[in-house]
Amino acid sequence: MKIEELGEGRAVISMPYDKALIGDPVTKVIHGGAVSALMDTAGGAAVVAHPLAGLGTATLDLRIDYMRSATPGQTITATAECYHVTRTVAFVRATACDADTARPVATATGAFTVAKGQA
User: Fold this and answer.
1) What whole-number distance in Å separates Cα of residue 37 and Cα of residue 50?
2) Predicted TM-score (pTM) of this structure
3) Which of 9, 25, 96, 112 is geometrically suited to a Cys-Cys bond with 50, CB 3.0 to 4.6 A?
């Protein structure tokens, strides 16, 4: 995974196609678990990048809706936005796309812990 953008409650993280991530050897489609890990990582990064969220986070809840298989050979990019922060919970929306950005591979909503304090 590679951080493409990070700041003000937003994270964009890409995951290049890799044969080690294939879930179906016949179709060469990336495993859903790899997409899930990408979206979870982007969500957590968006929380940490939010000015009200604090130093660290952990996933409390993550719902992922898979819309379609990612196109084999293409990079998948997740864009996550931390849109609301309370004292203890941050809320995130995310979308994962391959080269066809008009048709998402998956979307997610999640809740993450807020760990306030000083480094």
Assistant:
1) 20
2) 0.92
3) 9
